[in-house]
Every structure is written in structure tokens, then in C-alpha cells.
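Self-study notes.
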Amino acid sequence: MQRSLSYVKNNHRDLLFLLFIIWNSLILFQTNYFPTLDGGAHAYNAKIMASLLFGNDPFYSNFYQMNPEPVPNWLTSGLSMVLNTLMSPSASEKTILLLYFISFPLLFRLVADRLSEKKSYLIFLVFPLTHYALLYYGFFNFSYGILFFLLGISYWLKHAENLKLKMLLLFTLICLLTYFSHLFAFMALLIFLAVNELYFFIGCIWLNEDRKSFKEQFKISLFRALKLLPCVLVPLLFSLLYFTSRPELSTVFLEPAALNKLLTEGSIFKSFNTSENYTAAFFFYLFTILVVYAFITKLKTAIENKGVRGFFSKNDVFFFCSLIMLWLFYTRPDSDGYGAFISLRFALYTFILAALWLAGRSLDKVVELLATASLVVCMFFFVNIKKESVRWLNSELKKLDPIAGHIREGSIVAPLHFAEYNWLGAHYSNYLAARKKIIVTENFEASTGYFPVTWKSHEMPLYLLSPPPIDEYDCVAFTEELKNYSFGHVDYVFVYGEKTNVAYYNVLIKEIKQYYKLIYSFENVFLYERDPERSNLTPEQLRAKVIKDAEAEIRKNPEWMKQIEKKAKEQGVAVDEMVTRDAVYMIDLEKNEQK
């Protein structure tokens, strides 16, 4: 008993940290699904990858092919492919996220403690960062890039001064995994390695007590650099190939005011609920206050010690890297035509590196405990808001559950997204494709060229997504492609959301109903199935059939038939002729009103 109490006393920080990791991860198990913007596409493409790499079924290979380029974004796709052999796609997705929620804090603590002056409670600063905005957008590869970025830092800091062949090979593997997780993470790791080696060189010739001569340290640092270069060479070449093989696209820069607002409002912590605004802003100001306080403390210590060297410490490398990320945040575009939310990514890495610096500082105990306590309390409110949002998104995704049972295996499905109130549901159709053996013609990842799977033809995608706003020209183009899809019959049209108050939406649905019949609807989710009888008719034959159907509806209405009999007698024509005239008039009138 005494031994147990002693262990708890000596390791209370780490035990509380582990308990908080468990609590923080429980958000994944509050709902059946954990929907994200891109999550469905990841699950769908993992299924396609398995078929293309290991299956003999030509179903997917008629539409998709493996990307021969060694692009990033491979890691979680491959992991999802493996996990899908053991569990359902939704369980596989939760497993990937669970590994992230556990690994991020543990790796953060590992890195922070490498250069720490003491065991600090400020390692708890990592927890709001685990819920950063892009995670809820489904950027899983980017999230795993953070993990390998931290792993790479930890490994290099531990072994840089004792680099044997085995260690160099392991670090080479870490660099490759970082690249294949996400290119941004690999670039961030390169920045850290460069800054760390420069800081190490300066420290050895100027800051350390056992200083070396410039010439002596230059040889040591050069030898370390020569060992480091082969470790990063292959992913660096892959990165150069990635950039040089893509044409230049237009870039979008945010105004300084917008960038300042992005920081001060804590946008990196917010995902989709305005209720997050206060807690997100609190996290920003907490980080900022702690950074300013830590900097003043360093300055005060240096003045008291009457030496510039006393101002610097080993873990300041994180501070300098954080400043570089902040500079890039203000100078790089928010979109380069291939990737978006670039500013958010730089902001996130700025905070991660700043948090590593803070977690390694020796701050006043009272300040440290007050900051940690306020952060923990705020986290409870913050995560509860996230839970409510996830529950709502889960209820939206669950609307699709019955639809899967109505779609035949081996079908082609064209999706339409009009649910502007849930822009995170734009790719919900991909969740359907992850559950059944179908082709969904809205696989956006296959259109980008920087994921493992690509379309065989750029003409294969067929969909409507809002946002961006859909207009009548988009609807006309969609219906034309739907009628003349060159890669097989589109068997189903899946519609999520409706805009009956907009004329072009009603025209679109009317056009779809000419060739498809509604087989399922619930609230604002609709599934239309291709009607073979109508789909094989020429426009003239289809019009004749529509007229026949309209005549049948008229004949079922006794009041209408009385009026027709009266008009037929007045105009001296047969009743059947008058029924046909009314049917044609009604159809043409509806068509003109829709125009």
C-alpha cells in the first residue's frame, strides 16, 4: 500500500494526464457514427484500394485506378483498408480516430519532456489542440502527420548525438511515414530539423558552458547533417516531384485583418458550432498570456544573472520554430489551388510548438496550476459542445441507414446535396459507398490527384454539391449528363436536402422524375431509382407516355370529367379528344411555369 501511495505521489501528473486522455477520447463513443466532412470519402476509397490491390473483381477497376505517383495521404487510407478487413467502416474510422486521440497527447508529452527543465502540468495544453477544426473536417492524414512530426522530433532529439546505422534507418522510416501521412507535416519536420541543428551549432560554440571552437563544432555539425541528409532524401525527392508535376494554380491570400481574427477568435479550435466561440477564444488568450509571461520570466532571469547566455535554453528551439510557423501563417496563401485551409494549418503548428515550449519552461508553480486548472474546466465545456454537434451530425447521417437497403449491389449512384444547413454532410453519399459495393459518382478524392485512388476518366464524376451555390445552369448540365452518362446507366439518384422554394430545384426534380421513380424518402432524404421503361424511350415516346399518364389522372377525377364532357359538347369534338387536349395543356403549362 505504501509503495502504491508513493508511486501515485511521484507520478501524479502523468496519472492525471492518462485519465484525461481517456476522458478526452470518450467523445468517440457517444454516438453510433462519428461523421466528418471527408470521413466518408476515406472509407470509400479504402474499400476501392483493397479491390484494386488485392481483388479480382473488375467492378471498381472499370472506374478507378491506383495513382502511380508516390503522393502523400497514403497512410490512413492504407490503415483504413487493413482495419476494414476486421471491422465495419464506422468502427474502422473510430479506431483511426482513437489512435489519434491517444497518441497525440502521449507524443506531445514525450517531446515536451525531452528538453524540459521540470515535469510541468502545462503538458495539458495539448488537449484543446487534439480537437482542432480540421480533424472534424475529416483531415485524418493531416492529423496523423502531426503524430509522425512529433515522433520524428522525439527520435532525433534522443539519438542525434549517437547516430548509428540502425537508428538512421529507423529515422529514415519515420521521415517516410511522415511524408506519406501528409506533406505539410514532413515540411514542418524539415523546418524543425534545420532550426534545431542551427540552434545546436550556436549553442555549442556560444551558449554552452563547455563551448567548442567554431572549426571543431562545424565539423561535428557537418557530420550530423551528412547523416541526416540520407534520412530525408527520399521523401524530399518525392516532395519535389509532387510540386513540379503540378501546374501553377491561382492562390488566395487572406487579408491581415482576417488572419488576425482567425487567431484571436481561436478558429483552429472551432469546427461547426457557434457555441464554441467563447471557449475557443479563451484557449487563444490563455496560450498568449502564458507565452508572454514565460518570455518575461526568461528576460527577468537573464537580467538577474547578468548574462545574455542565461536567456537561452535548449527547449527554445520550439519557440523559434513557432515564430517561423507564425511568419509563414502571415505570408503564405490560404489556398494554392490544391490545398485549402493552409492558414489554419500554420496556425495549428504555431500553437503546437508554442505549447511544447511552454510545457518545457520552469514557470511559477501557482501560475502553472491556475492555468492548467482553468484549461481543464474550459475543456469540459468545450468537449460537451463538440459532443452535441457530433450527436446532431450522427442523427443526420443515420437518415441514410435505410437507403443502403434499397440500393442494389453493383449500381451507379449520382448524389445531389442541397442540405446547405449541413455543409459537413456534402460527402455523406461516400458513407453509403463504403457500406455497399456501388459506384458513387461524387468521389472527390479520386478527382484531386493527390490521393492513392484516381478516376480512370475526368468525365466520370457526376454530382451537384451546395456549397458552392447551385444555379439553374448547373441543374441543366447535371440532367443532360444524367441522361447521357457514357460509363453505364446511372441506377439511382440520391438527394440530400431540398429547396422547393427555388424554381430551378423544382425543374431539376421534375426532370429526374421523367426517368426515375421515387422509391424512398424520409424528411429531406430522397432516393430515386431508374425506371427502365421510361429510360429507354425516345423524347417523343416519353412525351406520349407522359400524356397517357396525365389522361389517366384526368379520367380518375369525376369533376374534371364533367367539365371535359361539357367542353367537348360545346366544341363539337369527342370526349377522348378533349381529354387529350387538357392533358397536353396541363403538361405544357407546368413546363412553362417551371421555366
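Second protein, same conventions, sequence then structure:
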Amino acid sequence: MAISKSTLLLYYKRDDIRQSMSDGAVDKEVAVRYGDKGFGKRPDMIISPGDILELVKKGATSFHSSEEIWTNPMQLSPNMPKKELESIRKGWDLILDIDCPYWELAKLTAKLMVKALNDNGVKKSVSIKFSGNKGFHIGVPFEAFPKKINVKGDILEIEKLFPDAAKKVALYIVDYIADTYCDEKGNIDDGKKTITLNDIKKITGKKITEFAKRQCSNCSKEIKEEKLKQKTEFICPKCENREVTETDEAYKKCSKCSSLMEKFQSKTSMCRCGSNETRLKFNPLSIVEVDTLLISSRHLYRTEFSMHEKSGLVSVPFNPQKIDSFSKAHAKPENAKVSKYIFLDRKTAEKGEAKDLFAKAYDYQPDISYVDEEKKIYENKVFDLQTEAIPEELFPPCIKKGLEGLEDGKKRFLFILTNFLYSVGWDADMVEKRVNEWNQKNPTPLKEQDVKGHLRYNKHRKEKVLPPNCENKMYYKDFRICFRETESLCQRIKNPVQYSKRRVWMQKRGPKARKKTKTPISKEKKDKKP
């Protein structure tokens, strides 16, 4: 929905709103959005409350500031080398940016994240605000961080660890939630009530296997088959040799002395480690996007009390202990109030309060497949690279559809697209050009710095990995680009890369290969058959 200029002026004329926004923008880079015209020049700053009103008069609709704190934000420039960025960065704030299409689950995730921070020693320094649309921003100011951290014997300065440290903390918090607040049945305890997996199933319409997995209680390995494996132990009475089989045999000859062995004991196990105890582990990332996992340098977030173009609501801070009672009605411009609850309040932050949180985040090694956005969610499959670039006309329909531009799922498609293009033989320059062309087709393009950071990371990554498999509903089906039900070739492959390689093979083989791929019969034609 487009916000009228009169509504914007009426709201941003409020002295208390502009003062709060100005206070939060000190030493931060600010980007100004002008409705559907996109963002203004970067870098920019807000020096005084009056700057905000002047910008709104010129068409500004919302304001976005950097997570990083700079000595002089105006010294920033595109493609600035890492060393130069570090030389003018004097700190950064931790912002857990969560986005979820299911309002009640967005609130649940926010509550669990605040609870997890509290459990890990961060209590006085936590703040929260509504994102303005579908989620929340949970913040911990730089003042609560330790100045240095010991990482495998190396003493590192925290101010230089952005964005890696932010990602590590976010990963740790996500996995801490799944480990700590979920019982063996997958039920989630938020401190006041219990949410069952069936509750989540009803809210999302997804199968339980899509947001929870069964794992061994002993070794944490995923249990793919719940069927018990029979193990029978035989002992030789003569030489005392012991042998274990997975079949329940009536008798067995000793492999050492050929004597008849005694059937001594029968065991059952669900896991190779021998354990028979399992638990269901909830996957928070299956229902909520944690944008903190995707951040790069100069990443921006919507400032407190900034309006949101789509919803017409305000990114309003509130009491982090009152998430349950927060309503979107509180975020209507006419209801927005400046209170004692300030987002990233540097005055009330306790120095060094997050010391244990950072230490645990760096020591922790997540072993859950969904946690690592870059390696494990994509199954970390290393494969033979395509030596020749496959042309775009041989791309699968899901990739072609996504390349037309997306309203939702842009960040996930960015991961899909870059991994796909490298997998089908495109070089870094080709990938960068095509990704930028795609981004401009999006109704609301991704931020330029986010795209550049992602491209830079993939360019220098040693191992190339496949995009997610077709059956991964978090991706293709979620933003409606899956053609698996209508395209016959899609039904026969597991990954979009296979589709393109199969098309190349079919072209080389000629008409004989193409005959094997039949056009699916429509439902109407099936009904007409005698």
C-alpha cells in the first residue's frame, strides 16, 4: 500500500519521533528510501531531527541505518577494501533480524530469542522493536560486548569481527533454542506455555517432518528410519569368540573354531551407536528467516520509528518482556509512542554483559543440518563442475521463473541462483552480471551491499555446492516457482542442476533422447480416455 504524503508529514512532524530517530542514528550510516523510487545516495547521515522532516518533504518514506558504528560514515564508499572499512569502524551492534509470515510464530521466535539471550547472560542490554511488517528486531548494543575475545589462542578485537561474529551468535542462538526449549517430543516451552508440533502444523499447513527431525538422544545423529534394527549376539563356548549379526538366526558356527555358537543375547537399536532413545528436534529456520545469517558489511536495518512502505506501520520499540501482548495495532502511526524502552539503549547497557555469549558462540560447533545456511542446508555436496557454461534457454522452469523477478523469497533465491549458475559452468563475471540484472527486475530489489557481499563470498569460496534439492519446500514451493507437478522432466530429477545437464545430454543425443521425455497428460485428457 502506498502511504500518502500527508500521512507521512503528519507522522514525521512529531518532535518526539524525530528526536528518537536522530538519537539512534548517531555515528551510523543512514540510507533513505523514497517509496517505489528506491533508495537515495549512500552514504548519508542524520545529524539532527530537522534533517528527517526535510527529507520527508522531498519524498522520503522510510529510514534505514547501519549495524556498524563509524568514526565518520561519510568516508564510506562502494567496494571499500576490508582494511579500510575496519580502520573507520569503531563498533557494531548485534541485531537478530527475524521475519516470519505466521504472526504467532514470529512472536514465539522473538520470545525464545530474548529468553536465550537472557539465559546466556545478556539481560539488561536486550531491546526489541517491531520490524514494521512481519517480524521483529532484537538488539544488543556494542557497549555490552567484550572488547576482545580469545579464539583458539588468538586474541581478537570484537570491533573487527563484523559480520562473522554476528553470524556465529545468531547460529548459536538458533541451535540453543532447538536444544534447550524443546523436549524429546518436540514440544516447545516458551516459559509461559507449551507449543506442540501439531500446533505449528495447524498454523503453517506443513508436515511435521518439514520443521522437525528425529535424532538419536545419545549421538545426535538423524534417525531416518524409525524401524528397529535387530541385533543378535552369539558366543562360542569353546573359544569365547563373540559375533553380532543384524539377523535373528537360530544358530551360528564360530568363524574361528567352527564350533556351534550359543545364542546369548538379542539387542535392538534405532541408531548405529547402539542407543534406542530418540527425540524430535525443532528447526526454527523452517518457519522463520533470520536475516542476521545473511548479513555483510554495511548491512542496513529499518530504524526505530521508521514507517514501512508495504504495511503502513511503524517500527516501534517496546518492552521485551511483553511480546505476547504486543499487537500490530500498537504500530499504527497514530498509536506509536516513545517510551522508556529504547532500541539499542546505550545508557542502560551493562558493559561486558555479552562476554559469555560470544565465548559460547565461538566455542560451539553446531551439528544440526539446518543450522549452517551456506554448507549444511545445501547438503554440502561437492560435485564435478560443468566445464562449459550451459545457456539460459536450457535452465529449468523454476530458475527461469525466478529470474523474472520475485516479490517474496528474494534472499533465498539469491542463494539458489548463485549456486546454480556456478554449478552449470558460469564464471564469476557472468554470474555477477546476471544476478544484478535479476535483482533489478524484482519489484523491490535487494540492497546492493547485500548482493555484493554474497557475490564476493561465492567468488572466493573454494568448494562449489549445489543449490537446494527440488523437494526442499523451504525454497521453490514456498515462493511458488516449482513446476514439479506439471513438467515431466522435473519429476525425474532431484536438483535443478540435473535438469540443465539432462537437457544438454538430450541435445547431444538428438531426437532419440528427446522421445523419452513425454509431455504429461492433462487431467482433462485423462478423463476423456475410455
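Instructor comment on the second fold: The chain is about 30% helix and 15% strand.
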